[in-house]
Write a structure and sequence with these properties.
By secondary structure, the protein is an alpha/beta fold. Helices cover about 50% and strands about 15% of the residues. It starts with a strand and ends with a helix. Its cofactor is [4Fe-4S] cluster.
C-alpha cells in the first residue's frame, strides 16, 4: 500500500509498516506536464495566488487511487498544508498529521514519532531496524556529496536529484541503493571537472529544473544543495529521534543558518543562490539570510513549473558576471 508524504518525514516508520512512501513533490515535478496538474487544482477551486507546489501535490494525491493515506507535515513545512489536508480529506483520503516541534524539543519529537508509528501499525523495534538499512544507503549519499564539492565529479543537478530523491528512496530502497552504487562507480572514472565558480543553492528545491544546466553552461557549478542534503540525513546519527532533531529544514531559519554557514566555509563557496517559491512565507526569511551570510547572494523566485524565463536568465548572467 502506498502512503503519500507532503515533505520529508521519518520514512523509516512507513517502510517498517510494510508500506511504500511516495513523496508527492517528486511525482509532481517529474510528471509529463506539472503545469497541467496545477491547472487541474485551479479548476477545482484552488486560488491562482497560491504556491504551485501545493496545487501540484493536491492533484497528484487526489488522482492516484493507490494512495489512500497521506502523511501531512502540519508544523515545520508549508503553512498551506492544513488546507491541503482538508481538501484531500474531502477527496476521501485518510490523513495522518505529523508535526516537527519548532523548538526542536527531543521529547515532543519523540512523541510525534510514537504517534506516527502507532498510526501506521508498526513498532519502534521494526522502525529502528529499517533505519539501520537506510543509513547504509545514506553513507553512499554522503560519498556522492563529497564527490560533488571536493572532487568535482558530480554535477550540481546530479547531486540535487539523488539527494532530493532520498526523501522516499524512489519508493524502493534496495533498487535505489543498487542504482546509486552503480552511479558512484561510473562517476569515479570521470576526470576532475575544470574549476568553475562555486555556487551554493539554498532554499526549497527549485520548480525550474533547468537552473542547474544553465549555471553549468555559464561556468558555474552548484557544490552545495542545502535542503536536498538535509533530506538525505547526512549526519548518520544512531538515535532515530536525534536524527530528525538534527534535520534543520523544519526548525526555522536560524537552525538552518548554522548548518549553511559551516558548509559554505568548508566547501569554499564563491556565491549563494537563495531560491524562494512564490507565495511562500519563507520569502520573508530572505532578509535574515542577507544579514547573516556575508557572500554575494542572488535571490530567485519561481512561480509555475517550467523552464527559466528570460528575466531570470538575465539576472543569473548579471550575477555571475559580477562575482567573476
Amino acid at each position: 500500500m502506498k502512503v503519500g508524504i507532503t515533505t520529508t518525514i521519518p520514512v523509516e516508520a512507513v517502510f517498517a509498516a510494510g508500506k511504500i512512501p511516495v513523496d508527492l513533490n517528486n511525482i509532481f515535478i517529474t510528471a509529463p506536464s506539472p503545469q497541467a496538474l496545477v491547472e487541474e487544482a485551479e479548476e477545482e477551486g484552488y486560488p491562482r495566488n497560491l504556491c504551485a507546489w501545493i496545487k501540484g501535490l493536491y492533484t497528484v494525491a487526489k488522482n492516484d487511487p493507490e494512495i489512500s493515506t497521506i502523511i501531512a507535515v502540519t508544523q515545520g513545512d508549508c503553512s498551506n498544508t492544513h488546507a491541503l489536508m482538508e481538501t484531500l480529506m474531502l477527496a476521501g483520503k485518510e490523513i495522518i498529521p505529523f508535526a516537527y516541534p519548532f523548538d526542536r524539543d527531543y521529547d515532543l519529537l519523540a512523541h510525534q514519532l510514537e504517534k506516527l508509528i502507532k498510526a501506521l501499525g508498526t513498532s519502534w523495534e521494526k522502525t529502528r531496524e529499517v533505519k539501520k538499512k537506510l543509513d547504509e544507503i545514506r553513507k553512499f549519499l554522503v560519498e556522492l556529496d563529497f564527490l560533488t564539492y571536493a572532487e568535482g565529479k558530480v554535477t550540481g543537478f546530479e547531486n540535487h536529484l539523488w539527494l532530493v530523491s532520498s526523501s522516499d528512496f524512489n519508493q524502493n530502497p534496495e533498487e535505489f541503493q543498487k542504482e546509486l552504487e552503480e552511479f558512484l562507480k561510473e562517476v569515479k572514472k570521470r576526470p576532475r571537472e575544470k574549476e568553475k565558480l562555486r555556487i551554493a543553492y539554498i532554499g526549497v528545491p527549485p520548480i525550474i529544473p533547468d537552473l542547474y544546466d544553465y549555471l553549468e553552461e555559464r561556468g558555474a557549478r552548484v557544490v552545495f544543495n542545502e535542503v536536498q542534503r538535509q533530506f538525505s540525513m547526512p549526519y548518520l546519527e544512531e538515535d532515530l529521534v536525534r536524527q530528525y532533531q538534527l534535520y534543520t529544514y523544519p526548525y526555522g531559519i536560524f537552525a538552518r543558518l548554522s548548518d549553511i554557514k559551516k558548509e559554505l566555509e568548508m566547501r569554499e563557496v564563491d556565491a549563494v543562490i537563495h531560491y524562494a517559491q512564490s507565495f511562500c512565507y519563507r520569502q520573508i526569511e530572505d532578509l535574515i539570510i542577507r544579514r547573516e551570510i556575508h557572500l554575494p547572494i542572488l535571490t530567485l523566485e519561481g512561480d509555475k513549473p517550467g523552464r527559466m524565463d528570460a528575466r531570470t536568465r538575465m539576472r543569473v548572467d548579471a550575477f555571475l558576471d559580477m562575482i567573476r
